[in-house]
Write a structure and sequence with these properties.
By secondary structure, the chain is mainly beta. The protein has one domain. 15% of the residues lie in helices and 46% in strands. A four-stranded antiparallel sheet has the order 1-11-3-8. Strands 2-9-5-6 form a four-stranded antiparallel sheet, with no helix packed on it. Strands 7-4-10 form a three-stranded antiparallel sheet, with no helix packed on it. The chain is elongated, with a radius of gyration of 28 Å.
């Protein structure tokens, strides 16, 4: 048994660096506590990466933002004499900011520019058929009504490694989520429009990937061998 254990220890110490440096990853998710009609801002708190006294080397931080929208109604009513066509969209857009850490990628650009969760559809409306101005009549053929359903979208990106020191520690940092409502129909003249805003919700995720130091791996292996030998030495009554 002693020879076998010694062989295992020597084998572990002789492993190439690539085998010893298998990355480990874990992530933290924070759901929006407020879910409702934009515009709104919410602060989400995340834990820093604990490097365990320098025994864990951080090599990537990925940040995600997911935005889900549901419901809402969009109405178009052509009050012009001529037919009108184009594309409309409505929903919500979300972005991240922080007073505690920099959210920049390798090019020093925002790691997440903007998440857009939008309903979108082409339209073609006939000229006005007699309804009045500001009545927002959705009846065809010169009007339409679109009822929104669930739309989800997300973006992610990697933090610039030169900024890792801001994320390392045993404390916390805050990410601020801003969600705004959005509607657009291409600015076609003669069209009236009305919107019932969507409900918006979502989550942010921070994922850390790191490698343990080789000495830590060896210590864990030795601990496992010791535990196995200790268990094998217990005699059954």
């Amino acid at each position: 048994m002693r020879i076998k254990s010694l062989f295992i220890i020597m084998s572990l110490l002789a492993l190439p660096a690539a085998a010893q440096a298998t990355p480990c990853c874990f992530f933290e998710t924070q759901e929006f506590r407020f879910c409702g009609i934009p515009n709104f801002t919410e602060t989400l708190t995340f834990n820093q990466f604990d490097d365990m006294g320098g025994t864990r080397t951080l090599h990537s931080i990925e940040v995600y933002l997911e935005l889900n929208v549901d419901h809402g109604t969009f109405i178009l009513d052509n009050d012009g004499e001529l037919p009108a066509s184009g594309t409309f969209e409505f929903g919500a857009k979300g972005s991240l900011s922080s007073m505690d850490v920099d959210l920049l990628d390798i090019s020093m650009q925002p790691v997440i520019s903007e998440v857009q969760s939008l309903h979108s559809q082409a339209f073609s409306l006939e000229g006005n058929i007699g309804d009045g101005q500001f009545d927002f009549d959705p009846a065809a053929p010169d009007g339409l009504e679109y009822n929104g359903t669930l739309v989800s979208n997300w973006e992610s990106g990697y933090i610039n490694p030169t900024l890792f020191s801001q994320y390392i520690g045993t404390g916390t940092f805050d990410l601020d989520v801003f969600v705004k409502q959005w509607s657009e129909f291409g600015g076609v003249s003669g069209i009236e429009w009305a919107v019932t805003p969507v409900d918006a919700c979502g989550r942010a995720i921070v994922e850390y990937c790191y490698t343990p130091e080789p000495s830590t791996i060896a210590a864990l292996a030795l601990g496992a061998i010791f535990l196995r030998r200790r268990r094998s030495s217990i005699k059954k009554c």
